[in-house]
């Protein structure tokens, strides 16, 4: 079964072609056109520029992903319809609907978050159900219990900033360029994570997250101590983020008695988070599943895989599908 995935939820234009059978998933293509260079001089994503670039790149990216496969040969087209930037989502949804209408292909609507959850099934060992899923990205920080394909229960979510959003904002405070996560991760390797005692919003009795206070603490620290070592600030900030993500996941393991964990989202590419989560899983005798870095960040392969599981259950969308900026899972 050939499924084409399309994702334009934020600033990356992505399309992927999967061949899915009883033998597993073959990733024929996974094309991602990054806009990082466009948004770098602004220190973050400019939604209007993002949507305009999607319009310019969507056909080229899809054409490259198809690799000569004719649209009529596809079993379905899966498109991310939210959550995300509404202008960006409109481009992907409009293109997918036009493609399905002209070629008579079924359309499948996919929630971006379930794509991240199922990204652990794209490569390497696959978890058995049920498992716990931590999504940590620029727009989302959530914990889910996953009982089967498409069966998710939210256990906790951020009450304000997402972890990746905090990384980007602190990066800007430190005078670093966008995207900030990889740069802070690199600088933290030579910094002292105990140099500055930044707050940890553990929110006892809850599996929710909060990172806005940490962002403010970093801002005030930089303002009041301009001579502090930048690498120490980066390391101390990152230690706070990672401590909270690991501790909350550990609490979820204890509370729900599930010793299988999936870590996904752009922040899952962070080397310190991967290291600390691995150590915690070993201490708890738990199984940890993390996708390759290329599948942690936004990509259409995860959208195509989630779309496949909707499609085989008969869950298709009409051509009146509209994107949604806010879309709980």
Could you explain the architecture of this structure?
- With 329 residues, the chain is α/β, with parallel strands linked by helices.
- It folds into 2 domains: 2-117 and 296-311, Nucleotidyltransferase, domain 5; 127-290, 2-Layer Sandwich (Nucleotidyltransferase, domain 5), CATH 3.30.420.
- Helix content is 42%, strand content 20%.
- The chain has 11 helices and 10 strands.
- The protein has a 5-stranded mixed beta sheet with strand order 3-2-1-4-5, with helices on both faces. Strands 8-7-6-9-10 form a 5-stranded mixed beta sheet, with helices on both faces.
- Helix 9 links the parallel strand 9 and strand 10.
- Helix 2 runs parallel beside helix 3 (86-103), helix 5 (163-173) crosses helix 6 (180-188) and helix 5 (163-173) packs antiparallel against helix 8.
- The longest helix has 27 residues, at 230-256.
- It is globular, with a radius of gyration of 20 Å.
- The mean pLDDT is 96.
